[in-house]
Design brief:
There is one protein chain. By secondary structure, the protein is of the alpha/beta class. The strands form 4 sheets. Strands 3-16-15-10-9-8-7-4 form an 8-stranded parallel sheet. It has a 4-stranded antiparallel sheet with strand order 5-6-14-11. Bound molecules: ligand RRO. Ligand RRO binds next to loops.
Length: 314
């Protein structure tokens, strides 16, 4: 990295050394993976979304790499809240990075219980409430139900004294962007992460005329290159609609240019999912270098100089 380019950012008031981090679900389910992120070139890390008790998740194979992307139906496999609380407690004074706890209860009641328990842990500074898991058979994505989202957030912000951000599903309709923004404006959300995988996609292996993952007859969350334009649109819309709320961009970031585009749309931080799965934590060095080079070529010393500054044509 060139010495006068910096990828420093702030997220929910926390000053971070880099605007890159993992996307929840990738390289963050067990302690080994999480430790790998503590040692990686990231400004923050987020745990696998957790439930109160551990879960084995959906049957294998439940993740497949596809050309320039991924499809998954993991089904929320995780070690349970206590495991992630313990990891964050142990690592809180290490490595100068913030560790974000991601939670994804299977009901409002479970989400509130997760928040109540996390509230007792001093080491927890920031929580990502996942409103968008697409892979639990029979459970809709909360973020597509605006009334349910509002009810959950009302009680969540009543219970929690922590900073709480939300991870949203992708939206595809202007009315839906506005409906969710109207809900979010009622609460002191610490940040908004756009987007989770595009739910219930289907990838086909033509050679054997088969789906490529086992759960849900092959339906799963799509990640990678295919979702970048949708992710950018979501980042841009929520950046515009939610004045002053930090946006975290996630979706289709394979290289420094993709990260640059997310920041140009308004992201303060970017999460890497599919690329991290495929390359491991070394991807953060590569993408940091590529982003710094683009910034240098364009004469930007900090990300704040271009964050949100996407130009319109009129
Ligand atoms: O575990 C999963 O199946 C999963 C989750 Br919780 C999520 O939020 N997003 C995703 O693509 N997979």
């Amino acid at each position: 990295m060139s010495s006068n380019q910096t990828l420093k950012t702030t997220l929910a008031g926390f000053h971070l050394g880099s605007c890159l981090m993992n996307a929840s679900g990738v390289h963050c389910t067990d302690e080994n993976e999480l430790s790998g992120l503590l040692n990686a070139n990231v400004g923050a890390l987020v745990t696998k979304s957790c439930t109160l008790e551990s879960r084995t998740g959906n049957p294998l194979p439940r993740y497949a790499n596809i050309p320039n992307g991924s499809i998954n139906s993991m089904g929320l496999p995780n070690h349970g809240l206590a495991y992630y609380l313990e990891f964050i407690e142990k690592s809180q004074y290490l490595h100068n990075k913030i560790a974000i706890l991601s939670i994804a209860g299977l009901s409002k009641k479970e989400n509130l219980e997760l928040l109540k328990n996390a509230d007792k842990a001093d080491s927890i500074k920031l929580i990502e409430l996942n409103l968008s898991c697409p892979n639990i058979p029979g459970k809709p994505q909360t973020g597509y139900d605006f009334e349910a989202s509002e009810k959950l957030l009302a009680e969540a912000f009543e219970i929690s004294t922590k900073s709480v951000g939300v991870k949203l599903p992708p939206y595809f309709d202007m009315v839906h962007f506005e409906s969710m923004a109207t809900v979010l404006k009622k609460f002191p959300v610490a940040y908004v992460c756009c987007v989770n995988s595009i739910g219930n996609a289907l990838w086909i292996n033509v050679e054997n005329e088969s789906v490529v993952i086992k759960p849900k007859n092959g339906f799963g969350g799509l990640g990678g290159m295919y979702i970048k334009p949708t992710a950018l649109a979501n980042v841009r819309m929520f950046y515009s609609l939610l004045d002053g709320v930090d946006i975290v961009g996630c979706g289709g970031i394979q290289n420094g240019q993709d990260a640059f585009e997310h920041i140009l749309c308004g992201a303060s931080m970017v999460q890497i999912g599919t690329t991290l799965w495929q390359e491991g934590p070394a991807c953060f060095d590569r993408i940091s270098n590529e982003l710094s080079t683009i910034m240098q070529q364009k004469g930007y010393a900090t990300i704040d100089e271009f964050k949100g500054k996407l130009k319109s044509m009129n």
